[in-house]
Amino acid sequence: MFGIFKKKTRRAATEIKKFEKRDLAQVVINAAYLVACADGECEASEKAKIEQVLRNQPALSAFTSEINAISATIIGQLDTNFKTGRRAALREIEDVKHDTREAEDVLDVAVAIAEADGEIEPEERKVLEEIAGVLGLRLENHL
């Protein structure tokens, strides 16, 4: 009887960890698109770079099949109304501020997206500073 209980407990713990990692995946994707859309629109080349960066993130490896669906939802929110989509993205990002490691991962991906074309544009830097502020991090430590 105790063996079954232990097995169910382990299975539940695994599901909880997967759920927590899915939340991290959503936060990372929100940050990536927020930076890419810093100028108010997200071009196809930016979206392609985001997909490439996201697929190579170890934290997201368990969610490669879900990245497109999560991305589509976030893009839809930003395209429909950029201000409300931006606000929703920042709220999602704020969810990881209490875990320094996850917060740093999120900011590092956002910086990678901003640097994808070789330089960080002023609009992108402003968004990066905002993300860093929400996460309680110093952007300078991640550039």
Automatic annotation (TrEMBL):
Protein name: TerB
Transmembrane feature ranges: none
Organismal lineage: Bacteria, Pseudomonadati, Pseudomonadota, Gammaproteobacteria, Enterobacterales
Residue intervals of the Co-chaperone DjlA N-terminal domain: 31-138
Pfam families, A to Z: TerB (PF05099)
